[in-house]
Amino acid sequence: MGPANNNPLVSSQKSSDSGLQAVLHPLVLLTISDYITRHTLRAQTGPVVGALIGQQNGREITIEHAFECATMEKNGDIVLEPVWFAQRLDQMRTIHKSPQLDLVGWYTVLPQSGPTPSILPIHSWILSTHNESSLLLAFHPEEAVQHSAGSKLPLTIYESNYEVDEPKAEQGEDKEMRDGDPPLKLKFRELPYSVETGEAEMISMDFVARGSGNATLVQPRDQKKAGTIPFADKDPKGKQTAKAMEPFNRPQGAEHILSREDEEMIAALTAKANAIKMLQSRVNLLTTYLERLPPSYLSPNSAVNLSRSQQTTPSHPILRSIQALVNRLSLLVPSDTKAYEQEMLSESNDVHLMELLNDVMQSVTEARDVGKKYGIVESAKSHNKKTVDNSSSLGSGFGYSNPGDLAI
């Protein structure tokens, strides 16, 4: 909070004074990150500016969608193009009619210290033209590159308000009394926010996470390189053995391409593995909490000699929750353990049997293919042998045109 207090555009009032709260949706984060990524990779000039649309229900503002905006320079300041912005906003209102969404704010890239004077023309224009209670979402790129576990999102949401701008008098000096109303200045105040996800957003977020986790790099197919097969082994008629042609028929990187079934299986296994890891970490946390309780809360056999600073502070609500969790474990254990184990063994045997049948069917298919290829080769050999025998029995002169022969 130190840098924020030194910023003249940041209000000194607490965020809880207004009672306003923002609800952020994940699709907004995807839109902003996509815009910043394209803006950076394409080396585009100009600021990153976009609009936020959502709903306002009392003192709660939902930020549900976002779109990028076109800017222009006017009198040395960066402002929005009014005509383009009005048309684009009308299109978004037409698309999002149920429920009806409207402009609730805008976003840009700012440092951690807070708003800068360069954003005041855009914000003042939005306040005077579209929404008097417009929000400002500031994205902090320097926080996005810090991959620390459990860190908050690299953004800050501000509300704006006109406050009295009075210079602070130095200690020991008297404050000058002036007649009339004090001047008002636009200042920003940080708002608390929460992240809310709908069912449609859960589907899209799962698709994006699954696609990024299973993305594979496939190299482009190279042309046939000279020298891969020695020239002495090549047939001048273009005939080569199957082993020699195999490297050319197999596309490069084919073994790294995953099918849709493989991707779904990997995504399901990854989700289950992450769930098991999280469950294990929570169980370890509860175990550590119980082990570090004071000796008076533990049995003599479970007590551990720890200093008072290493012991945890007992919390009766937490202990009651742990006790309730332990009592519910008996509901997860089947009443008839032998029947449960027999059923699990039967299911396991069925799975193994299906795997063996699959291997047998694949072996039969491969053997059938080998038989077909062998039959084709044998029929070709017998046909060539019959052709050679017939030509040799008819004589060397029959069937060939010689000088003076009549063509009948």
Topology:
Blueprint lengths: L1 H5 L14 E4 L1 H16 L7 E9 L2 E9 L2 E4 L2 E4 L1 H14 L6 E8 L10 H10 L5 E5 L1 H4 L10 E10 L19 E7 L2 E3 L3 H15 L28 H8 L10 H32 L24 H17 L4 H57 L15
Parallel strand pairs: 1-3, 1-10, 6-7
Antiparallel strand pairs: 2-3, 2-6, 4-5, 7-8, 8-9
Write a concise synopsis of the structure shown:
This protein has helices at about 1-5, 25-40, 80-95, 120-130, 140-145, 200-215, 240-250, 260-290, 315-330, 335-395; strands at about 20-25, 50-55, 60-70, 70-75, 75-80, 100-110, 135-140, 155-165, 185-190, 195.
Description of the structure:
With 408 residues, this protein is α/β, with parallel strands linked by helices. 44% of the residues lie in helices and 15% in strands. The chain has 10 helices and 10 strands. The protein has an 8-stranded mixed β-sheet with strand order 9-8-7-6-2-3-1-10. A two-stranded antiparallel ribbon has the order 4-5. A hairpin with a 2-residue loop joins strand 2 and strand 3. The longest helix is centred in the last third of the chain and has 57 residues. The protein is flat, with a radius of gyration of 37 Å. The termini are far apart. About 4% of the residues have low confidence.
